[in-house]
């Protein structure tokens, strides 16, 4: 096989693999939807626990406690939020549908680093990172294909 | 050589040769720069409500790292307001070429300063205070003032753009990453330069100043040395300057193999990783430590930052490069330091991708503050455009994650490609450096996603 054809085949293979990594849906886990209750404590500048887990279909209730000053919690991707004054916990409930990783952000300016007060909600197994890493690996494998042969 | 000169477009050439468009943009940016300082000093101390913070660290930063640097390289330096006052002092003229001569003491920069170690130091210094700079309007104002004063002071004593070339912490990384940009200013015909008597591009003429960056355009092979000030385009009597579109990362095919530039690359890479952990991670104590300049926890953070950037990342890279040398089929006799510095070119596209991906996470999430500060720049309760009360709403969604993953994968690809090419030239097997880049990319993904 000449070099050109070999390169073409490798390119096609990598492209197919990349498409597979992006498109193949995550295996559906047969977990029965449940109700989850989580108490989240907000303080400058973190949520505890910082990562919440749920499975698609679950009904999640978050009870937000502010430990120092007023904080809020905003769930990216779902657009739901709540705000709590210190000593006055607030609860809200929503149903998680889509799987993936979603950022939790403080929604009240609570101090200098407020814009960076973050947490995470992972719905289902965290396939995003695995897929991303696989894509980066394929990108590295593709690099030799993009180098023209040195004609020194 | 797959290059196209953009100056074939008549109106573009006319617009670039004319001093007015460039001056107008710089003057507007100067006004914005001064206003950012004023807002930082007298406006509200709440960062997200202060024009100084939002204009500099959200708007300017986003445009710079996501568009201007990847597309134009040093395009920002072309219109940057910081050297304006110093240029004026040297030239005694705002617009006209004034005979191409400059005044001031015009000393040559001592040899000790003719490298980018000072830029590295300036960047590292800013970086360990970054949490304060990024969130406290007074500190941002102070940083901007220091840059302005240093630029003016250095231009009064030293020749040309000495501040830009050896101190400016912003210019340092713009220069590093400008090597990736698909744009370059070069001469069309080097032979014409060899026989050119005036060398007006370097010496200046009635039509323009000698290269403010102290570069002889005919010798230009890499973007960092050229500030895209366009003076040579104006001064060259032979119309020999071209502005080329070129393949991405073309400068990295024959890397400079300079240790100062290699460490710039490690500083930038390390800073992106540490910032991703500090600003986007869930660790509240880390955030507080980074912010509390002068305290013990902050000292620990600063030490860790410097260790990661200057010891851990370069140390692991050193091991990778030694391995690359072992694995290479042919082993030309080159110094270890040279191998190391040359291989570090792969970290240039990688670092740019890290910064772009990191910036995507906070720029769009906090972009809506722009509405607030445009209407109420000082946080004094004004409402110029009726948007002062706009509610914070993050412009962020699953597309951001997709773009971040794409950008990071592209960075790993770029790094592996540079490792492949430069490796073939320098007798280094591309695998270890590619593996190093991939591993860091996965760490970065873990922090960002
Ligand atoms: S090096 Fe710094 S001061 Fe000089 S033009 Fe570039 S950004 Fe501006
Ligand atoms: S003035 Fe023009 S032709 Fe002469 S050396 Fe400079 S770029 Fe070349
Ligand atoms: S004079 Fe020409 S070579 Fe020198 S910095 Fe300006 S544009 Fe670049
Ligand atoms: Cu908060």
Q: What count of domains describes the coordinates of chain A?
A: 2
How many discrete domains of chain B?
Answer: 2
For the largest beta-sheet of chain B, the strand count, sense and barrel status come to:
3 strands, antiparallel
Q: Report the helical percentage of chain B.
A: 55-70%
CATH topology of the largest domain in chain A: Immunoglobulin-like
Give, in order, the helices and strands of chain A: HEEEEEEEEEH
| CATH class wording of the largest domain in chain A | Mainly Beta
Fraction of residues in β-strands of chain B: under 5%
Number of strands of chain A: 9
Residue ranges of chain B: pLDDT <50 for 5 or more in a row?
A: none
State mean pLDDT of chain A (0 to 100 scale). 85
Name the helix and strand elements of chain B from N-terminus to C-terminus, one letter apiece. EHHHHHHHHHHEHHHEHHHHHHHH
**Helix-and-strand structural type of chain A:** alpha+beta
The named CATH superfamily of the largest domain in chain A: Cupredoxins -  blue copper proteins
Shape of chain A: elongated
- The share of residues in extended strands of chain A comes to 25-35%
Helix count of chain A equals 2
* Quaternary assembly: heterodimer
The best one-word shape of chain B is: globular
- Ends apart, CA distance between termini of chain A: 24 Å
Overall pLDDT of chain B: 86
